[in-house]
Amino acid sequence: MESTLKELSNGESVLDIKDKCGVAGGVEDMYGEDRATEDQTITPWTFSVASGYSLLRDPHYNKGLAFTEVERDAHYLRGLLPPSVSSQQLQEKKVMHNLRQYQVPLQRYMAMMDLQERNERLFYKLLIDNVEELLPVVYTPTVGEAYQKYGSIFRRPQGLFISLKEKGKILEVLKNWPEKSIHVIVVTDGERILGLGDLGCQGMGIPVGKLSLYTALGGVRPSVCLPITIDVGTNNQKLLDDEFYIGLKQKRATGQEYAELLEEFMSAVKQNYGEKVLIQFEDFANHNAFELLAKYCTTHLVFNDDIQGTASVVLAGLIASLKLLGGTLADHTFLFLGAGEAGTGIAELIALEITRKTSVPLEEARKKIWLVDSKGLIVSSRVESLQHFKKPWAHDHEPVKELIDAVKAIKPTVLIGTSGVGKTFTKVVVEAMASLNPKPLIMALSNPTSQAECTAEEAYTWSKGHAIFASGSPFDPVEFEGRTFVSGQANNAYVFPGFGLGIIMSGTIRVHDDMLLAASEALASEVTEDDYLKGRIYPPFTNIRKISAHIAAEVAAKAYELGLATCLPRPSDLVKYAESCMYTPLYRSYR
């Protein structure tokens, strides 16, 4: 075999040099690694044996001090661990104690990411058992700061990075991933991360975080999940000037160059993983998000969480709120601040639900829904200048520039914020909503917390306790005039994990709008009378795995009904089947 080592000037390889100096710390330099100069290549040799050392560094199998005495003998762990043997429960207690010592949320996030890279099962055990406490750490709002500083806190790569450098070789890149059976891919190009804008390659935290929730909340095995970032550059000058930025230092590719890279990616995914791999688009900019979903929804199993997942979660809250508001969806008027992916996606799903319940035409149902963008109320006189996804919402009305004037003119019963701009539901806006409705429903959905249209305290205080409030990021309970209000969180994590599980367990080959409606109704049905008494229109996250199983069952049932499911015969009890499919993070015993 031809040597891969560069020859020295006298014809010798670095392997031919005698190791007289003990450059490897007194150990013979077998592979020439320490003697090679910087311009000489070496082979990155590795070996695989039943070694305790490698076992302790494999996050899939590492149990730390929970290895039993028998396992320590069988797997050569003697001396590599302290003599104490701990249970997983004791390990969990210790890690939670340590996490609570951190005063800065970003420190908790980094500690959790370190744990995930060190001990996968303990990470998920912690997240499942302490979901309400840790979800804000590994997801919104803490992730916003983590993604902004991703280059600085980057320690070890997670997922696949596919950049313009890999054009023409994407299939090869996919084959580099160690797991060959993949069921869910979450992919981003980092152009519109939360409400933070273009974070380029640093958007990788989004796919990693979302897939952690697929496992913790939906029970999808971590080994079948693949996070991917497509790096086509960034238009964020601050990142381009940052010496620690980890992505391509160039302006974003657009047009044909961008489309060709995405086409190659989608084709390679289907070729490598098959027809039934779920591809979740995450945090693409509006213009690309709608085009990608429209282009691939008939040829691939695709789902856009920003458009479809958000819509399903918000619709669930609206359906649940009817017990407090009264009437049907068709009896209410909806006003949105924000007309991007989330706003138009929610609006369309509301219109579809109204159509399904009342049999009125979709165009008629849309007239109950009004949107405000950066230029004011979307009306028919603006239709020529509107982006294509806004045109269905251009109704007959005189132009209105400000949100407060739109509230007074439209007189909505429901106000929904998807603008990504904080503090836009001002005191006068909330007071106006309260003057028009005995129980105004206000949903400030933008993430992270700093971008929320208003806070829970502001909504309850300005409405004098009459508002029903929900938000995208969590808020603490609010005391007002002797009553405690617990706001709901319209968090996508309620839907996409269970939705994905339902698709996987049924072998669904395409996503249909009726499956999103089924997920919404399943989530709404989980809200209890106790939740309503507290002012909540979403159930607590403590029951999220039960909720996810119920959503998965309803989504799968709809897929079977539509003829889109391929796993036959259909299980008789889909809820029990969903629960049986769920990953559990308890430690396994090793032979």
From TrEMBL:
Free-text comment on the cofactor: Divalent metal cations. Prefers magnesium or manganese.
Residues bound to (S)-malate: R192, N447, N491
Domain annotation Malic enzyme NAD-binding: ranges: 307-560
Active site: Y139 (proton donor), K210 (proton acceptor)
The reaction(s) this protein catalyses: oxaloacetate + H(+) = pyruvate + CO2; (S)-malate + NADP(+) = pyruvate + CO2 + NADPH
Its job: The chloroplastic ME isoform decarboxylates malate shuttled from neighboring mesophyll cells. The CO(2) released is then refixed by ribulose-bisphosphate carboxylase. This pathway eliminates the photorespiratory loss of CO(2) that occurs in most plants.
Protein's name according to its UniProt entry: Malic enzyme
Record lineage: Eukaryota, Viridiplantae, Streptophyta, Embryophyta, Tracheophyta
